[in-house]
What we know:
130 residues, alpha+beta, single chain
Amino acid sequence: MQPIVLFDGVCNFCNGAVNFIIRYDKAARFRFAPLQSEFGHKLREQHAISEDVESIVLIEGDRAFLRSDAAIRIASGLGGVFSLARAFNILPQAARDWAYSRFAEYRYQLFGKKDVCMIPTQEVRERFLP
């Protein structure tokens, strides 16, 4: 099964991050689903991820990664220069997640929010899960 990125579908920054991943994921390795979708809810339930988690989530096989772990694994999965993100693993997870959470707390104020989830273009629609 291909890795699945769950993201906040109404967050402008999160939508930008998904577009970034799509642009640099030359192998089309990652699939996507909004956290707010029915599929997103099912995966949250399956992996015991709380409904109040607004973090990016990476599902790989039977494991779920949240916050900085998800971001680092996604960047590493893009390959090339993005693999350097692994260097952040030398920092304690608590410190990485604290910084991630502080940014996430203010992402709507910094980048805005949509009323609805993004609609992908036809060419990338097949990479989005129902």
